[in-house]
Structure prediction request, 433 residues.
Amino acid sequence: MACGAWNSIVEEASPPGSPSLVAIKGGKGRPVAFETLQAQSEDAPRARTGLGEFDRVTGGGLVPGSAILVGGDPGIGKSTLLLQVAARLAKTGAPVIYLSGEEAPAQVRMRAERLGLRDAPVALGTETNLANIIATLQRSDPPSLIVIDSVQTLWSEGLDAAPGTISQLRSCSSALVSHAKQSGSTLILVGHVTKDGQIAGPKVIEHMVDTVLYFEGHSGHQFRILRAVKNRFGPTDEIGVFEMRHDGLQEVENPSALFLSDRETQSPGTAVFAGMEGTRPILVEMQALIAPSPLGMPRRAVVGWDPNRLSMLIAVLEARCGIRFSGHDVYLNVAGGLRLGDPAADLAAAAALLSAFAHRAVPEDTVYFGEVSLTGAVRAVGHMDQRLKEAAKLGFTSAIVPSACERDYQGPEIRLLPLSRLDELVAWFGLPQ
Prediction:
């Protein structure tokens, strides 16, 4: 059982009057009008909020009639972010409604005062009854933005189920999304996440909305990452970087410099990775620590990277390069709280591991990127120009890259050190194979 508890199954009856299946023959309907692929389509209009990093992640601003789902850990700053977005948009003259189902109006006003947003013309309300919310929205002209914090607190009178259950989430979300489509208002729903980091409730909520954003970060770090995992009106895997301060979330226009601000250049076990997050190049430090293990099964711990990727990389280093980690604990960390999903991080992780194993620091003016295959080959990756331009802008003078990428580069002056196999990097550290 995934939940780890007994007697936790709750029966949920189907709502009365649910539509039944209509037979194919005799069903009433109207023919569908088809169009050609050559038909002209205009780009979706955008409403910029004035918060540049938020607009970047959403693809250029809010699209009227769209629905956005924002998820994140408790206390990570979701309500703070959306209150800042609502206030910025309201100050431009656009009507904005902020409905809170978890906090009293006084709590929201206290947060607005701390953020310096008390003068923003945001219509604030507290309601969890779906019928009352729809009636309120239909009473006046459609607002430009509707924020619901959070969708797990909503309930519908027509369903005999507690708030937060699957049927309530599906029904309330569907009604709010339909209203947003018909009225032209942009809808933002806040969703809680489970222990696994997924949006709590069924995946059907993510299918209903147009955009799914995750607000990530660690409580011990001041950095927050807003990541798009689904976007029908813009690129996916785009990120926005914020810094949490006492007066709210501040945009970070140059995240690479921020992530590398506390780097120790002469310490073994560190390497700078030139990565891509969506369309943005980001340089981040990867840290490794290797220590003798007294355990029969050494530990493998990783923060900010895929643990399975680390296990595969260690296996390649052992099988193809002769580096034995069997008697050592291996720890890998991505500095700054960033979570990497770029496969090009393999080469930087390998450099950090080999540097820690050999007790030899890597050159401080060098960046790494490249994908490592199971055969030990270093494979080419995309967006090489953007990676190297970002590295050159921050003062790096050389880069260790896959050999297949060397002939395609036409950018700023930076010395390329091509690799075709991982054992060439092992030889550079002087380790026996």
Remarks:
- The first strand starts at residue 67 and ends at 72.
- Confidence is low (pLDDT under 50) at residues 18-23.
- Residues 52-253 form a domain with the Rossmann fold fold (CATH 3.40.50.300).
